[in-house]
Each structure stands twice: as C-alpha cells, then as structure tokens.
Automatic annotation (TrEMBL):
Gene3D superfamilies: NAD(P)-binding Rossmann-like Domain (3.40.50.720). Residues 5-225 form the NAD-dependent epimerase/dehydratase domain. GO terms for molecular function: aldehyde dehydrogenase (NAD+) activity. It comes from Lentibacillus salicampi. This is NAD-dependent epimerase/dehydratase family protein. PANTHER family: NAD(P)-BINDING DOMAIN-CONTAINING PROTEIN-RELATED (PTHR48079:SF6), PROTEIN YEEZ (PTHR48079). Pfam families: Epimerase. InterPro entries: Epimerase_deHydtase, NAD(P)-bd_dom_sf, NAD(P)-dependent_oxidoreduct. It comes from the Bacteria. GO terms for cellular component: cytoplasm.
Length: 317
C-alpha cells in the first residue's frame, strides 16, 4: 500500500487511521465535507507533505471516485447518526461500494457489533447473526450489500469494533464519562457500572485495521477488532480519578433514565434499544487475527485511559 484514502477522516476512527497510515510512510488523502475540520487535521499533523485532503459528500459516489483515483485502498470510516440510520445507511453503502467498484479497488468498512444481537456463543466472526433490534437488522442488510456479488470489481472487508475510547473518540458510550472527568465536572456513565465490558483503544484498533488491510487474502471476510480485555465502569472511574483528581459524582444511566432523556434528545432516544449491550456486554474473539495476522495490540486500560484523559484535559485548556 503506497497511498490510501480515508472517508470520514475527521471522525473518531478516521483520525487514528490517518495517523497510523502516516506512521507507516503511506500517502493519505483525507476525505470529508467540512473544510475547517480537514484543515485542522492537516494542522494536527504539522502539514505533513504525505497528507492531503479532498472535500466531498459520502453520498455522492462521483466525488469519492474523483478523490480516490490515486489511492490503493479506501478506508470507509464515515457513518450516519443513529436517528438517520434507517434512511441513510443503505445509501451510504451503495455510494462507497459503487465507487470502489468503479475504481476496481480495495475497501475496508469500519462497523460495529449490532449485527449479532445477544451473545450466544464464542464471539468469533462466525457468531450467529440474530439481531433483535432495528439497528442490528439494518446492519445485517448493510453487510449483505457490502458483500453483494454485484460489486464484481471491488474487494471489500468489514472490521467490527466493540465500544471504543481514545482522544479522537466522538460518539462512543464512554466519551461523555471521560470528557466529564477531564473537565472536572459531574459525569455520566451509560449503562451498568458493575458489568465488565469490552472497549478497544482507538490507536490499537487503527493498527489492527491497517494490518488487515495490507493482507490480500483478508478481503471478502469479516474481522474482529478486540480490545484489551474486560473492565467495569467502576474500575474506569477509579482510574480516571487518579489521573484527573476529579472526585465529583459519576452518575450511571440505566435504560429508564435514557428513555426519559430521550423524550428531549433524539440521539438518546435511539440509544435505548441497544442498552442490552451495556448490561450483558459482548466479547469479541481475536483468535482469527492472531492466527492470520499476529499478536493483538492491547494497550492496558490504565495506560490508554491515562493518555486519553491527559489529551482531553490539554485540549480543554
């Protein structure tokens, strides 16, 4: 891989993939619709000559084709907000896959674990897909679209992440907790604080995603991006307090509380149906990655949380 384009480059996963690609001396085209955010991304990387940007609309296939014509690989990190998923997710998939098909290129789709529903077996890539939520069912249809035979010229793969955290994270369930702790405010925690859950540190995820993308035989498959193990909300708060010195309350929000907030907040209204993940958790197996790629990068939670919180505190100065 000599050159790559990152769609949704200013998002949480997009930013870390841009950084990882640049660390590997790969030329990167950052694609997005906000020029101000793209310029900030350029500035964050000290205007690295290997980094350029292209303005475009993820729903406009031709703008992707024009921007990606010199790229070997497309990293699809753009997403749609929860409350618009039903109307826009399929359109996004059609647009990016049509572009990859026209370019006869490789494309990596960054996705989550809603396709599985409740965990009933080992969380490997062959786990049954029996989603019981609207979002899960939409994601199953999205996967079918990505791997459709109609894209005869494109090579696609899907990487699946659990909940994640990191300084670039923007829409994860853990983000309001860490932002509140970093700002020395009362914070919230979405879900049961006693349930051990899996989180992946975004820089680790980026390493795994790029490693997979570089393997020619990885395409046409789903790949898990596991975290560094399990950790409860209480443990996260304890670690965060040591870093920030914040002793203010961290308030857990259960399904009832989220439903009430959802009366006024359309995003939180959509969160209600996937609250089962915050109660049960879902553990991804990294065996396939270890067997075919290598050791799973797993930054200890103590280190990852400390780095994340210090950067969040610095950015708030």
């Amino acid at each position: 891989m000599k050159a790559a384009i990152v769609l949704g480059a200013t998002g949480g996963t997009g930013q870390v993939i841009v950084s990882e690609l640049l660390n590997r001396q790969i030329e990167v085209i950052a694609f997005g619709r906000s020029e101000s955010k793209l310029k900030t991304l350029m500035e964050d990387h000290d205007f690295d000559q290997r980094l350029s940007y292209k303005l475009g609309d993820i729903f406009d296939c031709q703008t992707i084709v024009d921007a990606a014509k010199d790229a070997d690989v497309i990293f699809q990190c753009a997403n749609v907000i929860y409350q618009e998923m039903e109307g826009k997710l399929h359109l996004l998939g059609e647009s990016v896959m049509k572009a990859a098909n026209i370019l006869k290129g490789k494309i990596i789709i960054v996705d989550g674990i809603y396709v599985y529903g409740h965990q009933v077996a080992k969380g490997d890539e062959n786990h049954p897909q029996h989603p019981h939520t609207k979002k899960g069912k939409l994601r199953v249809e999205f996967e079918k679209l990505i791997f459709s035979n109609k894209w005869e010229n494109a090579k696609a793969l899907i990487v699946r992440l659990p909940d994640y955290y990191g300084a670039t994270s923007q829409n994860s369930y853990l983000q309001p907790t860490l932002e509140g702790m970093a700002a020395h405010k009362t914070s919230i925690f979405i879900g049961n604080m006693n349930t051990p859950r899996e989180y992946v540190y975004l820089p680790d995820a980026a390493k795994m995603i790029v490693n997979i993308a570089e393997k020619d035989d990885a395409y046409g498959e789903n790949w898990n991006i596991p975290g560094a193990g399990l950790i409860s909300g209480k443990e996260i708060i304890q670690m965060a307090r040591k870093v920030t010195g914040n002793r203010k309350l961290a308030i857990p929000l259960n399904k009832t509380a989220i439903r009430l907030i959802g009366l006024f907040d359309p995003f939180m209204r959509e969160v209600v149906e996937i609250m089962y993940l915050t109660k049960e958790g879902f553990i991804l197996s990294g065996e396939k990655y270890e067997k075919r790629i290598g050791p799973v990068p797993a930054t200890p939670f103590k280190n990852g949380l400390e780095e994340t919180l210090r950067l969040l505190m610095y950015n708030k100065k």
